[in-house]
Specification:
alpha/beta; 3 helices; 4 strands; 34% helix
């Protein structure tokens, strides 16, 4: 996984609602949506299929590879820049959604990663996984 960059403490009281979802269950209402269906899919591995992106094995499968590493290398600074910018412009709330096919594996792993990133940077976050229990 990527090294988590640090940013200045946000100046406002921005709340970031960060959530995962599955495209097959419909698009969510969000300010920004990232589609992560290009990342390796543990659904096709019988040994991993029953787990979710909350499990470290799934997170490693999805993110600890060339494509996942490059994605986080680009996404982490972008998310921190956006959070800082929204905070500086006195935005009170932002809804960021991360989607994969079913909402159980890839989107959850990326959401957990971003939650850690935002938390260590002192941002107020709320995390949910809309479709994690759906088939």
């Amino acid at each position: 996984m990527s090294i988590i960059p640090q940013v200045n403490q946000p100046s406002g009281s921005l709340k970031i609602n960060l959530f995962s979802f599955g495209f097959k269950h419909g698009q969510p209402d969000a300010d920004m949506v990232w589609d992560v269906r290009f990342l390796p899919n543990p659904y096709w591995d019988e040994g991993l299929k029953s787990f979710t992106g909350l499990d470290e094995r799934i997170s490693r499968y999805v993110l600890d590879n060339e494509k996942g590493g490059k994605f986080l290398e680009l996404l982490d600074p972008l998310v921190l820049f956006l959070a800082q910018s929204f905070s500086d412009s006195n935005r009170e709330e932002v809804r960021l959604a991360i989607g994969c096919t079913g909402g159980k594996h890839r989107s959850v792993a990326v959401t957990v990663h971003l939650a850690r990133l935002l938390s260590v940077n002192g941002l107020q976050i709320e995390v949910s996984h809309r479709d994690i229990t759906k088939d």
